[in-house]
Amino acid sequence: MEYETPLFFRVIEYASRADRDVIDMVSGKPDWEPPSAVRDGLSEYATHPSDAFQYPPSEGLFELREEIARRRGVDTEHVVVTNGAAEANYLAMACALERDRGDEILLTDPVYPYYPGKTTMLGGTQSFVPTDATGQLDPAAVRAAASDETAAIVVNSPNNPTGAVYPAETIHSLVAIAEEYDAILISDEVYDRYDLSGEFESALAAKSNHRVVTNAFSKSMAITGFRVGYAIFPPKLAASAKSRHMLVNVTASRPAQYAALNALRETDPEYYDGNRALLRERVETFTDALEAAGASYTTPMGSFYVMARFEEYPGTLENVFRLIDEAGVAGMPGEAFGDSRAAWVRFALVTPRVEAAAERLAAFFE
């Protein structure tokens, strides 16, 4: 089985070799400060006795799992702490496929590229359900695509790359479809703290044994390098997920889990409110400049990405390389996210140089 190097790495590598200053709008790495309690937790951990530097429980520190469970209204035994949301999604997809209920994974188009890659790695087959122009997913289209071969339906809200936020009726309908076909709805909610619409609904609101919710502290606490995520499994999948997690990773970082737990307990809501306010300002600044440049664009209702379409400039890898060389702005080619957005380029608003990037793009396309 052959795997392609993800386009993210190819773009980042190309930008790093550029002969000019390049504004990085490729990766979803928040540029703002983590909660102060993260640093406090790390400092405190350094003073712990030596046994605290050994393996933690494989499924995660009990106190962290307990805190997550309390906040999410679930049983602690259903929570598995993972190496970021990436592993959480891998575990969820693997558990869905190993039930011998078919090998099809239903994905959206556009799609976060790692979902198709994981599907291939796990021996599943991919099918895609188109979203509308705003990134919204029609449950009727999902139902029409589902079959007895459907093992899982994978969705992401708030969405990367479109910024769509699925309303409650969509989420509950998707859970119902999963139940109808004995499939697993996998709801990746890693951007839940960046809901700008007020309409976000977690799949946990639907009480069901046919849904898995994945998340991480990577984005919400601006600690992508800590690799602390989690998945909430229904009882019938939790034991299998824990076994696979142990075989693949053994466990996640103990100090990072401790710091995340400290931040969960000590961080006020104002921290998250401030980051959303900053993001709203950046969305307005960037989209205003795109409009002045005559570009089409998406206005995100959540997450921190804007997709832009420039006339007669499709979102190919070659054109993204040209933007790096000639405009000094690095984005992601739309073709990385599926056929429906191949004409677009995705930009991550996680840089204080958003206004400068917009000005460079406007000058390039004038």
Your description of this structure?
This is Pyridoxal phosphate-dependent aminotransferase. Homodimer. It holds the Pfam family Aminotran_1_2. It is a single chain. The chain has 366 residues and is an alpha/beta fold. The protein has 12 helices and 13 strands. The strands form 3 sheets. Strands 2-8-7-6-5-3-4 form a 7-stranded mixed beta sheet, with helices on both faces. The chain has a 4-stranded antiparallel beta sheet with strand order 9-10-13-12. A two-stranded parallel sheet has the order 1-11. Helix 2 (36-45) crosses helix 9 (254-266), helix 4 packs across helix 8 (235-249) and helix 10 (269-292) runs parallel beside helix 12 (354-365). The longest helix has 24 residues, at 269-292.
What tags apply to this protein structure?
366 residues, alpha/beta, Aspartate Aminotransferase, domain 1, Aspartate Aminotransferase, domain 2, 2 domains, 4-stranded antiparallel β-sheet, 15% strand
